[in-house]
Amino acid sequence: MRALTLAALALIGTGAAHADPLADLPIDLHAQYTGTVQAHPAFPSAFSGGNSLNRRADAAMTNDITLYIGLSPWKGAELWVNPEIDQGFGLSDTLGVAGFPSSEAYKVGKQAPYYKTPRAFLRQTINLGGATEQVEADANQHKLSRTADKLVITLGKFGVTDIFDANSYAHDPRRDFMNWAVIDTGSFDYAANSWGFTIGGAVELYHGAWTARAALMALSNVPNGESIDTSFAQRQWIGEIERRFTLGHRPGVVRLTGFDTYGRMGRYGDALALAAASGATPDTASVRRYAHRDGLSINAEQVVSDSVGVFARVGIADGSKEAYDFTDIDRTVEAGVSVTGKNWHRKDDVFGAVLLVNDISKAAQAYFTSGGLGVLVGDGALRHKAQEVIAELTYTATLKPWAHLSLDGQMVFNPAYNSDRGPAPVIALRLHLAR
């Protein structure tokens, strides 16, 4: 961690010390470092299982440093690659809570720093008319001029949520909320490898107050797997309609997102039937076959005042089959508020509060009651099922324009839908440096 932190400080600090040291280079270069420390005390637990959150006091750290290297090979085109070094684990090896408390923790982790390339993609913007807008340079974004009406095509390796299910207040685990079912709709079982990225293509059409998006993305080879099915034999179609509007002369947005997953997945009923016949513990891996799993969600945000914004998400997914690539959530609802520090003379600071409620289907409940394990949850039994309820408070202080320090607190009631465990309080400290 010390080596990673020093390297990040050197890199970000160099960029902060000069206005634009790369102005004469034919490439666009940005960088970020994020380090988190997250912990929880011991909490009540009648029993534990294979995918349980550790009932004893526990702490975990994660670190990642990313370069965003881009160039424009022709007009309207952006070619980006993001080499990254990661290190660390989530609490309990990123297990035990369907709405896991840290989106900076991946489903895989290592004690020593390791390399990966989460993104390598080409984006083409085709102007279609309307007012001209100037876009400033940022990570994975060139400085450019474009029209309000446009067609945007993205091809390569990237994250589904780089394009879909966006939200101004709850979508960036390095700057706002940390819970990964808050920054993305919990029931949105989007295609991804264990690090949250995959290959495919997306098209976005902007026209007036509307945007339509569609994508075809590859699933992992097996549910929650590290490798991607590059043949697209296992795939996901995603569609989204976005409507921008004003309410009380202030901007708001509503997004409707749907997905259809086609891949080898296990049906909970089949796993239970096989377990009953064999006397074994049910396991969806033993009954996987090609099938569809779909879902739908609504995501809204509204500016209330110069310093206050509110947001909400609600989603539902097919609960007869196992979650494929995200987490064990079949129904979810969240509502929150984001407040900038203008009223206490810290205009660049942000305070956020959100309440999240997750649930599973009766088929999933029966599976977990019989000892089955899911993507993230599975206590070996589920004697008293309840909704998983999570409250999160976060405060991000702007130390410098390129440096942000966050304090985050979460209370997890009924972790993994189990009222025999918890509540579990989780606290975190996060440092984010970006240029």
Compact summary:
The protein is mostly beta strands. Helix content is 8%, strand content 49%.
Structural notes for this entry:
This protein has three helices and 16 strands. By secondary structure, the chain is mainly β. It has a 16-stranded antiparallel beta barrel. The longest helix is centred in the first third of the chain and has 16 residues, at about 1-15. The model is unreliable at about 1-5 and about 15-25 (pLDDT under 50).
Which terms summarize this structure?
single chain, 435 residues, mainly beta, Porin, 3 helices, 16 strands, disordered N terminus
Helix proportion of residues, in percent? under 10%
What would you call the shape? Answer: globular
Q: Please give the CATH class.
A: Mainly Beta
Q: Hey, roughly how much beta strand do the residues contain?
A: over 45%
Specify Rg, calculated over alpha carbons.
22 Å
| Largest sheet report | 16 strands, antiparallel, barrel
Q: How many DSSP H or I helices?
A: 3
Structural class: mainly beta
Low-confidence stretches: 1-6, 14-23
Query: At the third CATH level, what is the topology name?
Result: Porin
- Average pLDDT for all residues: 93
Quaternary state of this entry equals single chain
